[in-house]
Amino acid sequence: QDFLRHFAGKRDHSIGEHRIRALVLIAPARALGMIRPHLSAATRRVLIAELDRDYVKLPLHEVERHLSALS
Questions:
Q1: Taking the C-alpha atoms of 38, 9, 45 and 62 in order, what is their torsion angle to the nearest 10 degrees?
Q2: What is the CA radius of gyration of the chain?
Q3: Whether 68 contacts 60, CB under 8 Å
Q4: What pLDDT sits at residue 70?
Q5: For residues 10 and 7, what is the distance between their CA atoms, to the nearest angstrom?
Q6: pLDDT tens string for the chain (71 positions)?
Q7: 21 DSSP assignment
Q8: Which residues, at least 6 apart from 38, have a Cβ–Cβ distance to it below 8 Å?
Q9: DSSP secondary-structure letter at 36?
């Protein structure tokens, strides 16, 4: 949970510096549920989607293939 809190804080910092204008969170449902309370209002404003998926063990080209199929 410390990792998720740290992740949320880093996203908030980047959003505050206008380096992120749109955000899609992709994680297993449990992780999404754990991170939501740590998202700031600014982060929620740029959050355009949440996907309940676990792509951690996939190579990057497979992740890209899965994500391109969503659009």
A1: -100
A2: 13
A3: no
A4: 77
A5: 5
A6: 799 889 999 999 999 999 999 999 999 999 999 999 999 999 999 999 999 999 999 999 999 998 898 76
A7: S
A8: 4, 5, 8, 9
A9: G
Report d(CA 23, CA 25) in Å as an integer. Answer: 6
Q: Minimal CA–CA distance to 55: which of 44, 39, 41, 68?
A: 68
DSSP letter (8 states) at residue 50: E
d(CA 29, CA 10) in angstroms, rounded, equals: 21
How do residues 11-22 score in pLDDT, each as one tens digit?
999 999 999 999
Structure tokens at 15: 């959003």
- Nearest CA-CA partner of 57 in 48, 49, 66: 66
pTM of the complete model: 0.80
Structure tokens at 25: 């969170």
